[in-house]
């Protein structure tokens, strides 16, 4: 599960870099693509945070 979340995070970050650098999107298309990649980044980051190994309580 964590492997897939890390894979999604890496793909979303690379996708966002591609969208903002090379895709030549304009207007609403650029906004929609950026929002989708941002949601994927935030979702995978939250999933990784929620599934992190926790230290034992003292």
Task: Write structural notes for this entry.
This protein is mostly helical and 58 residues long. 76% of the residues lie in helices and 0% in strands. It is built from 2 helices and no strands. Helix 1 packs antiparallel against helix 2. The radius of gyration is 15 Å and the shape is elongated.
Main sheet overview: none
- Helix percent reads over 70%
CA distance, first residue to last residue: 28 Å
Percentage beta strand: under 5%
Estimate the global geometry from the Cα principal axes.
Answer: elongated
Number of helices: 2
Give a quick rundown of the structure.
The mean pLDDT is 92. 76% of the residues lie in helices and 0% in strands. It is mainly alpha-helical.
Keywords:
58 residues; mainly alpha
Could you give the topology of this structure?
Blueprint: H1 2-21, H2 27-50
């Amino acid at each position: 599960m964590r492997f897939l979340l890390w894979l999604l995070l890496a793909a979303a970050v690379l996708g966002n870099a591609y969208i903002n650098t090379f895709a030549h999107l304009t207007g609403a298309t650029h906004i929609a693509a950026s929002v989708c990649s941002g949601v994927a980044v935030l979702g995978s980051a939250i999933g990784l945070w929620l599934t992190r190994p926790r230290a034992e309580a003292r």
